[in-house]
Design goal:
Blueprint lengths: L1 H20 L2 E18 L4 E5 L5 E5 L15 E14 L9 E2 L1 H7 L3 E14 L5 E5 L5 E5 L14 E16 L2
Antiparallel strand pairs: 1-2, 1-4, 2-3, 4-9, 5-6, 6-7, 6-9, 7-8
Length: 177
Amino acid sequence: MLKAILSLACAVLFAQVVGAQTTNRVSATESTVTATVDRIDKFSRTLTLRRDNSITQMVTVDPSEKLFDQLKTGDKVTVRFTESVVVAVRPGASLSLPKDTTSDAKAANDDVLQQLKTVVTIDTIDPDGQFVIYRTQDGLKAMRVVNDKKLLQGLKAGDRVEITLTRERAISIQRAK
């Protein structure tokens, strides 16, 4: 009887530890970017935007947004869109290159433009929660600004984490002033 109680207690404790380690941290944000239209794909209604620092970003524009049809390469625009980030600790998970899981995500939500998943190792976490440095499967060291500090709660150097980034269609688009 004592063995059974100890076994049950160990199983419950193990489940709590594993559950605590695999808690997902989710942050959904509405972002605004002002950039120059670099490319326009009329068929897919996708804009490639180039920011001042030469970073490009693709945004899919909803058919109800009429300004899209008037845009030309070189126009300066302000676009609002939503994106979410899910961070989940995955002890012992194999590092992976970013995997495009967009088709699975679109099955659940047609507004999804892009979804990427990857497993990385946390290298450094800024004590103020402003950025994180991680290592990828191919050995690259990357730094990312963190907009929502709760994504880093409970994480420590050496943790293997799965990151899921989901971008949705643009909410609005305007000519920049």
